[in-house]
Design goal:
Length: 220
Amino acid sequence: MIKGLDISHLNDHIDVPNMPAKGFGFAWFKATQGLTYQDPTFNAYWQSAKAIRGDKFAVGCYHFFDPRVDPIAQAKNFLSRGVDFTLPGVLPPCVDLEDLVGKDEADTAVQNKWVANNWQLALSRLQDFLNYVKTATGRDCIIYTYNNYPKEYFHGHGFPNNGMWLSSLQATCPNRYDTGKQPEFWQYTYRYNNSDLDGDYFTGTQEQLNNLANIKQQKQ
């Protein structure tokens, strides 16, 4: 498996160009959330990664999806960051599908109860987001989630045509709830090397990661 990190404004700053020297093969960056939020660290990280992207290092970006609001407006917010998903070293677009977080515990409970009570609408909106992004980029989104979320909120609805990035803080990589296969990415810790960074693995080979990230193999 190949080691990587996912990073947002909630994490301490990391020197992205030095990541390959530290044994990392990829990084995910938070780009957007909901209708209008744009992560303030994204552009600097994305620009700093250009010097190393496309050799043996891949970068990707994700949108934190809010099922309560317009999915097309969310997709447009995500795509407004200007990422070209066809370039060498760029992973497919990714949508973050997990519990919403409110201003306090009570608000958090209310937001997630809405999703549970309106799950068919929430699922329809997610599908609209996925379809819009695919049409715009030509690539299927990877879905970040944890197995219990779609099982609980979406009554086990599966996404067999989408890659998956599963969060599971356990000793071994879990299989997907919908296909029984390993996910492409596995988030295994929220405290990588005693930091506040999330640690991830790509579960395949370097060649498979290169293929996913549009990196052409160098002729020997």
